[in-house]
UniProtKB/TrEMBL annotation:
It comes from Streptomyces xantholiticus. Residues 58-67 have a biased composition (Pro residues). Keywords: Carboxypeptidase, Hydrolase, Protease, Signal. It comes from the Bacteria. GO terms for molecular function: serine-type D-Ala-D-Ala carboxypeptidase activity. The keyword Protease applies. PANTHER family: D-ALANYL-D-ALANINE CARBOXYPEPTIDASE, PENICILLIN-SENSITIVE CARBOXYPEPTIDASE A. The gene is dacB. InterPro entries: Beta-lactam/transpept-like, Peptidase_S13. The keyword Hydrolase applies. Residues 1-27 form the signal peptide. Residues 29-73 are annotated as: Disordered. Its EC number is 3.4.16.4. This is D-alanyl-D-alanine carboxypeptidase/D-alanyl-D-alanine-endopeptidase.
Amino acid sequence: MPKVRTWQLATGAAVVGLTLAAGAVAAAGPWDSGQRKAERARAASHGPTGGAHHEPPIPKPPAPVPSAAPVLTALGGPRTVTAKEPTAAGDLPELLGPLLGDPGLGTAPAACVVDLATGERLYGKRAETPMVPASTVKIATAAAALTALGPDHRIPTTVVAAPGAGEITLVGGGDATLDRARLGELAELTARALREHGPTPKDGKQAGNDAKPAPKIRLEYDASLYQGPALHPIGPNDNIAPVSALMVGQGRLDERTTGAATRSADPAGEAARVFGQLLAERGIRTGAPVPGRAAAAAVPLAQVLSEPLSSVVERMLTTSDNDIAEALARQTALATGEKASFTGAERAVTKQLRRLQLPLAGTRFADGSGLGRRDKVSAVLLTTLLARASDAAHPELRPILTGLPVAGFSGTLENRWSDASAGTGLVRAKTGTLTGVNALAGTVVAPGGRLLGFAFLAAGTPSPYDAQPALDRLAAALAS
């Protein structure tokens, strides 16, 4: 089992030769319930950040907002069964069969539909066949992370200092959501602690025109938490940065961009450079940052935390964020004693899904994002995952359902639901798109308020402009 360093926040410690106050760390991170609501709102409305899809989205205006009553009913209230409601597996072949024959779905699409209240399979076609899932594999990544870490887990980014060494180290904890604003908060906490307890003029003079400038502090950065190759097997790609335990803005060279964008080849070094600039803006002079390892005797100076894992998962699923997905796979590895690498993450994710008693025959999780083609997932696995997430016995998995994009309204389904307008607002689903591979897996409120889980996987698709509408029609058919 790899050793993972955990920083214990002390009430006081000798840092750069002086004693630190304990409050430097406690100020970081959102805590109250009002902030949590804001986090959820941001996760639901966040623009595309992960660049999950290789093809551009199909621009379609959303349909009118549906009545909320069916949605609320499906979430736990009483429902009324109508005569047209599909109530058994025998009702669905006639409904879905012709739609699965759409040439836009290739020659052998897979499908599975289940009743999420009972777990009963209502329909299956090649449901057990392992197929390339594209970004729908993020559902499995989310389930593994939530099972291993819990929905309240937060990922730290820490600054530590060794006593008397005149240096500080920025330590990456694997937070792929770290942005410039939160790194600025960390710089503020660090500068405050250094001004109060770090190396400052001690020649007896009052600060003023004749005061000596504060000496430069050596700045190191430690991204050693992750192991193995940082580059995704697909190679350099605008859809994902090299996987690093330390990054800011997901390694984008232009901080104003979202979605697919040119990434730094060294996200950790770039994050440290930005951190040095933020310290300089706060009056702390550092030299050029250099890579290193936090000393064993180092103690915490300042820390910021990610949002709770539940919110991070929601953001990943809503926006199909590849950087977050790979980070969560590695966090799962760390939590389960595996190496934080692509190989270790695959073992860890598989281990956690096995704990959930899922059908894993033929499956493979070579990455957490679905950008690679070595991943293999079956339609029945995806629907079983959705059933577990809706089960009251697994409340930790509920963010999987709440993070799914809403047809016609949010995330990767926001502009993709006019031809299949019957499902607008009633379908929530994770999309998946690679060249020649298209998938859709999620939930739908059927007539009478019945909540169904579905997964449709297609390979050999001629074009996303044919495959995506065909998948949308399948999901909408369940709602209409």
